């Protein structure tokens, strides 16, 4: 074992540990049988909109500046 760890090495070691914890919880969630399907479900009420305009504005000011 190395007697001295740099800040970068310590953060890398910690990130690997936290990543392993997250991965193990994701694997555990995937092992459970679920009845969830990705099929679209019928809406609770009939849709009124015929068309939708989706606006994506990339590169706008941040929320801190507004």
Proportion of helical residues: 25-40%
- The average pLDDT is 76
Give the ordered list of helices and strands.
Answer: H
- Provide the β-strand percentage band: under 5%
Number of helices: 1
Give the overall shape, derived from the CA principal axes: flat
Major β-sheet, in short?
none
SS-derived structural category:
mainly alpha
Considering the chains and any ligands shown, give keywords for the structure:
single chain; mainly alpha
Q: Would you give an account of this structure?
A:
With 66 residues, this protein is an all-alpha fold. The chain has a domain at 1-35. Helices cover 38% and strands 0% of the residues. The chain has one helix and no strands. The longest helix has 25 residues, at 7-31. The protein is flat. It starts with 6 loop residues before the first helix and ends in a 35-residue tail after the last helix. The model has no long low-confidence stretch (mean pLDDT 76).
Brief account:
This protein is an all-alpha fold and 66 residues long.
Question: Topology of this protein?
Answer:
Blueprint: H1 7-31
């Amino acid at each position: 074992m190395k007697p001295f760890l740099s800040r970068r090495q310590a953060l890398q070691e910690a990130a690997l540990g936290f990543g392993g914890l997250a991965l193990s919880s994701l694997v555990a969630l995937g092992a459970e049988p679920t009845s969830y399907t990705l099929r679209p479900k019928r809406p609770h009420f009939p849709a009124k909109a015929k068309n939708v305009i989706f606006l994506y504005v990339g590169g706008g000011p941040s929320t801190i500046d507004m």
